[in-house]
Specification:
With 119 residues, the chain is mostly beta strands. The chain contains no helices and 11 strands.
Length: 119
């Protein structure tokens, strides 16, 4: 069974940057559309962005445009979420998830990595 693992979260000050990583146990991430989501305490899960099967096909939530970048390392079968100019309201658990290109629902989810932005 595919297992996703996120890493790279932590505590950062306002305006700082973090790079989150998403890896999968079967090293088949290159075959899936990968999405990033976040969930803050007491709030619903929120879409952050998504990357298609190549690095040219990305889509972001409005708050992430110009601030976050999703990319793939095909050789390493990894997906990254680069987050810049962080704000306290971005504090949340960030999850990656995968789906096949031909379906709309993300079926496999990682447990997430905590991002805390201090003011």
């Amino acid at each position: 069974q595919v297992r996703l693992v996120e890493s790279g979260g932590g505590l950062v000050q306002v305006g700082g940057s973090l790079r989150l990583s998403c890896a999968d146990s079967t090293r088949t991430l290159n075959s899936y559309v990968v999405g990033w989501f976040r969930q803050a305490p007491g709030k619903e899960r929120e879409f952050v962005g998504v990357i298609g099967l190549n690095n040219e096909n990305t889509n972001y939530a409005d708050f992430a445009k110009g601030r976050f970048t999703i990319s793939r390392d095909v050789r390493r079968n990894m997906v990254y979420l680069q987050m810049n100019s962080l704000k306290p309201e971005y504090t949340a658990v960030y999850h990656c998830a995968t789906r096949l290109r031909t379906v709309s629902e993300f079926g496999v989810w990682g447990q997430g990595t905590q991002v805390t932005v201090s003011s």
